[in-house]
UniProtKB/TrEMBL annotation:
It holds the Pfam family Methyltransf_31. Keywords: Cytoplasm, Methyltransferase, Nucleus, S-adenosyl-L-methionine, Transferase. This is EFMT2 methyltransferase. CDD domains: AdoMet_MTases. Residues 56-185 form the Methyltransferase domain. PANTHER family: EEF1A LYSINE METHYLTRANSFERASE 2, PROTEIN-LYSINE N-METHYLTRANSFERASE METTL10. It comes from Pycnonotus jocosus (Red-whiskered bulbul). GO terms for cellular component: cytoplasm. GO terms for molecular function: protein-lysine N-methyltransferase activity.
Length: 210
């Protein structure tokens, strides 16, 4: 991928500062990455596989925290969201407060250098964070390896990792997470047709940690 400002912390700090101001002004929570259906897809999978409601869930790059709110509304009780942007965490705290979801834990954390207490999760969820890391202008390949290493540290053996991406194909993601993870399922995402070929603009996969 070509390096992009979308891979920099400065970009996301500025973006979430704007969204925080907008939320304070008019109560708009801001953009939902990959749309509402991406959240529904994740929650349906958890429900279909009867994942216990007290399972520990980590939302990697939580942004405005709306996914965690929806998980809480579905009955999940042990929810943590992290983001390296303090403005994102401020925004997600405001959203949590508005929705009355006091049981959601939120922390400023850089997933590429996670703190020691960030460990033992049953489920990790990523909607676009791995994509953003892949666009970092400074050693994106090295940062992707750090990401996989962090995921191995924070996710329990046999824990589930649900990733939604618009930059990577299924085959590419299988290659990126080949060490320490096995594919369980590809989740259905919207299809498009271009030049007579059918493809997906978004890839959603479920891995299990070995």
């Amino acid at each position: 991928f070509s390096p992009s400002v979308l891979g920099t912390r400065e970009h996301w700090d500025a973006a979430y500062e704007r969204e925080l101001q907008t939320f304070q002004d008019i109560g708009d929570t801001g953009e939902i990455w990959f749309g509402e259906e991406s959240m529904v897809r994740i929650i349906r999978w958890l429900e279909k596989h009867k994942v216990p409601l007290d399972s520990s869930v980590l939302d990697i790059g939580t942004g405005n925290g709306v996914l965690l709110v929806e998980l809480a509304k579905s009955g999940y009780m042990n929810l943590t969201g992290i983001d390296y942007s303090p403005s994102a965490i401020q925004l997600s705290e405001k959203v949590r407060e508005k929705e009355g979801m006091s049981n959601i834990k939120l922390k400023v954390e850089d997933f590429l250098a996670p703190s020691a207490e960030l460990s033992g999760f049953d489920i990790c969820i990523d909607k676009g964070t791995f994509d953003a890391i892949s666009l970092n202008p400074s050693d994106a390949a090295g940062k992707r390896k750090l990401y996989v290493g962090s995921l191995c540290r924070v996710l329990k053996p046999e824990g589930f990792f649900l990733i939604t991406s618009c930059n990577w194909t299924k085959e590419e993601l299988l290659n990126e997470f080949r060490e320490g993870f096995e594919i369980l399922e590809e989740l259905p995402t919207p299809k498009f047709c271009f030049g007579g070929r059918i493809g997906n603009s978004v890839t959603a996969l479920v891995f299990q940690r070995k």
